[in-house]
Amino acid sequence: DTEVTQTPKHLVMGMTNKKSLKCEQHMGHRAMYWYKQKAKKPPELMFVYSYEKLSINESVPSRFSPECPNSSLLNLHLHALQPEDSALYLCASSPNRGQGDYGYTFGSGTRLTVV
Amino acid sequence: DAKTTQPPSMDCAEGRAANLPCNHSTISGNEYVYWYRQIHSQGPQYIIHGLKNNETNEMASLIITEDRKSSTLILPHATLRDTAVYYCIVTNQAGTALIFGKGTTLSVSS
Questions:
Q1: How does pLDDT run across B57-91, given as a tens digit for each residue?
Q2: Is residue A2 within 8 Å of residue A48, measured between CB atoms?
Q3: B46 vs A90: CB contact, 8 Å cut-off?
Q4: Is the Cβ pair A98, B93 closer than 8 Å?
Q5: Residue B2 has what pLDDT?
Q6: Partners of residue B73 in chain A, C-beta under 8 Å
Q7: Which residues of chain A have a CB within 8 Å of the CB of B101?
Q8: Chain-chain contact of B87 with A100 (C-beta, under 8 angstroms)
Q9: Which residues touch B102 (CB under 8 Å, ≥6 apart)?
Q10: A48-78 in b/e burial notation, b at 16+ Cβ within 10 A?
Q11: B51: left (phi > 0), else alpha (psi -120 to 50), else beta?
């Protein structure tokens, strides 16, 4: 299995809702990442997990809460989001921190709309 | 990480070679050049990387100048499916997370 799987593919949520995005990989990668991408912009790094520990938080608002329950799974818990948080949320993984010989493997993303 | 400069857009005819340039004049000795692409509504995809030698794989070739201040990604026979945003990123291999610049939008037409 050489994929990063993200669910759901699409999500519409109200500003008072609580929802979670899920990311899964079975490549034995020990680093996992969340990115946010607005339309016609490059992906922006949000969080980095290395060996299941949070190692980078790019000053992301607390309404986004990451969780790494095990080495294969990465969640992003969402609460009290704003319409401007609507974006494509991308998950990625790599064998270790850094690019290595094969770069990152990205999922196809979750398209989030906050209403 | 060193900064990169890429043209915002390029066009290419189907079947022709697409040559995508990238300037990285402040690259450090231990930094690699990585290329990714992002097809519309998909996640970015790793293409190729190199340090100082030219590299080739099944997807593309990477030509790095001798002074390492610039590089060119070559898609030898572009197809319509190669239409995407191409990102050139300079980074070390250990520890530094991937940070994307604006990239080049390549449009391949028949």
A1: 999 999 999 999 999 999 999 999 999 999 999 98
A2: no
A3: no
A4: yes
A5: 58
A6: none
A7: 42
A8: no
A9: A42, B6, B8
A10: bbbebeeebeeebeeebebebeebbebbbeb
A11: alpha
